[in-house]
Every structure is written in C-alpha cells, then in structure tokens.
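S2.1 Query sequence (tRNA(fMet)-specific endonuclease VapC)
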Amino acid sequence: MDEKIKEVALDNCYISEITLAELKYGAQYSDRISENIQLVDEFAENVTILPIFNCLEIYAMEKARLRKEGNLVDDFDLLIGCSAVSNQLILVTENKKHFNRIKNLKIENWIER
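Output structure tokens follow.
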C-alpha cells in the first residue's frame, strides 16, 4: 500500500470526514493512544478531508434503494462510499464486496494478502 500511495502521491489522496472520525476513534481505543493520535493527525494534515454535506442527496437515494432491496450498508460506510461517488473519486478499500452495493462507486484494493 505504501508503494501505491507513493505512486499517486499523498496530496492526491482524499478521505471523508467519517473516515477521519473512525481513525480518531481507533486511536482513542488503542493501547498507544498518544502515539496513534499523533499518527492520525499527521496523516490528516497531508490529505484532503472531504465534507459529507456534498453527498447527502446520493446517500439518501442509495440508503432508500438499498433498504428496499434488503441490502443494507452501515451508515458510516454508506456516507464514505457516497462521498467518493459525489466527488468522482475511487474508493480504496479491502472490503470490495461490502461497498460494491453502492451504485456508481469505483473501488480499488491496494492491499495484497
């Protein structure tokens, strides 16, 4: 993943406000709180943080569609995916199967296991 980030350059990477909230939660819940908060803050300074208000219409339509189909996606994940759709960005995730339910979402997995 580090190689891919170097290839695209960190300043070309974007994250949702929701993603940042999840990273901050993870840092607070970890065994090395101070160290991880610092890592999250440094990372956040080097990427563009996307506000979620731009994706709220897409989110509402997708949530209604998915609910009618019986294919619910967690609200935070749906907001993250819809942020990528509304900003015409590629979502990088290891959870392709989960995010594939969101219409018009382009997905890549940069982690090899």
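The first strand starts at residue 14 and ends at 16. The beta strands are 14-16, 48-50, 90-92, 106-108.
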